[in-house]
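Case study.
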Amino acid sequence: MEPKVNILIVDDEEIVRESLASWLEEDGYEVKVAENAARALERLPEKEWNLAMVDLKMPGMDGIELMDEIRKIKPETIVIIMTAYATVDTAVQAMKKGAYDYIVKPFNPEDLSMTIRKIIEHQKLLKENIYLRKELKKQYRLHDMVSKNHKMIEIFDLVKTVAKSNSTVLVQGESGTGKELLSRAIHMESPRKDEPFVTVSCASLTESLLESELFGYEKGAFTGADQARSGKIELAKDGTLFLDEIGDISLKLQMDLLRVLEEKEFRRVGGAQLIPVNSRIIAATNRDLTKAIEEEKFREDLYYRLNVISVYLPPLRDRKEDVPLLVEHFLERFNIEMGKNVEGVAESAMRMLMDYGWPGNARELRNVIERAMVVTKGRMILEADLSLPKTPGVSLPNNRGKSLSDMEKEHIRQVLLDNRWNIIRSAQVLGIDRVTLYNKIRKYELKKEPVLNS
Amino acid sequence: MLRKLRDHLRDYLSLPVKITGNMPVPDGSYERNRNQYNSTRILREILRETPGDAIKIVGIVDKDLCIQILTFVFGEAQLGGVASIVSIARLRQEFHGLSPDEGILFERLVKEALHELGHNFGLIHCPDRECVMYLSNTVRDVDRKRITYCDSCDSALYAKTEPWRV
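After joint prediction, the assembly is written out as follows.
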């Protein structure tokens, strides 16, 4: 059964209240009346009022003042101002203050029926819209990450499961795909969420600095160590230790780290005492670790220790459907941070964002939106507000002196690589059918190159 | 015309129907600036004059009715109450600049009387445009309606009139 539609009539004339209530009740609405603004305010908390029909001229608080109050207390209640005296000024004032409609008594019955039906319909759609938006966001959101890409949603589901365990997680993906955000999400979903989340950026430090950063040191361990200091492993306590750019650490530190992972304890630099490790470790890299192992730049045993649970974050160009969603997400955030009120991105600007290749992934998109929001003058972000590098998408190597078929081979190879050898998608990008693509792969003897495991 | 209406209602509803005496239109119901009569005020007066044994009472009036907020009404009823009122002023062809037609007027009167009685028995407006309980704001709406209730309104009414059916 449809929920009851509640209408509140506020008028100081009894005959008006009675006749209007009777007329509306015949239409099946649930109608209550109030003889003045004070009584109306008393009745407001009684239920969710769909509509308040308020007389403009009443002794005490008038209709417009009452409307202000209603809008504060029950913003979802729609207000119609009724009056016997039509003046342009009051009508304008009422509409400006947010009245849905302004009706001059007497009103044509057909118009009134229509107006009320429209209001009810409008409210129903609004509620449905709010509900659907919530449902959508619920599904596509994991803390600060949004996506509607099926692979990403699988990852979100995986995160919720693995967060409960203590296993080490290896997060792989290009720069800017959200490796740290995902790691934070794992932390926030885990029972450790009230403990510290400690980040170590392995690429930015020299070997010895990184060593003391990770393990801490005792007083006198080296020149300048005039007092003992805890390392990040200790600081993480029962929380999560996030090792970013793990692919960049030296072989010696890899060895040390492996020992920590295996023995669950370590010593500070220059220290003798063994300190237990209670934190959960999440490592991330944008490097292809399997390739690094082949090149003997990364220890295979450490790789397997870290890679207990493996997550591969796809680049933004492989989940273009997320661009509008991410844009909306960033707009929302920067509107709050910057105190702005940018409503959206113009269609042509959105097309530009969709066409761009995003080598810097979601982080690059965030920066582009942030900049656009700073420079934009209106409520919409326009093409002119976006600063994107001139050559988007596929870039060809230096082609001078190469034959047409060399170029075709190189281009196909690149497209296949970009699309992770998804034949259907690659064929679409190239604008040829699948069979033709297979023929060309055979002709040019193209082979699937090892990529990061997913 | 009243007698014809009585017979029709009695036969169609299977309820005892009788005509009470005439009642003057109450003075206080006249709205001078609009040259119309306030239906709510007349309804109050009818209620005061209702015989104790009446199941429902329908006042038939030849004055143009209105309520403050609406330019006119064809009638008014207490939802689930005792009294209702129907005006024949706008049901007349001559109101719309056409020649008088008793047959059309009678059919419209029956529809509006059944409509207001339906409200008295607790029925609300029906979404079926051809059901007599459909909200009609114009005579065009009235003419489009059949002279009967739709199946679902009819069965609801049937249950409500049970105690008095003959």
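Observations recorded in class. The longest helix of chain B spans residues 102-120. The beta strands of chain B are 30-31, 36-38, 57-61, 65-67, 70-73, 75-77, 83-87. We will return to this complex in the next lecture.
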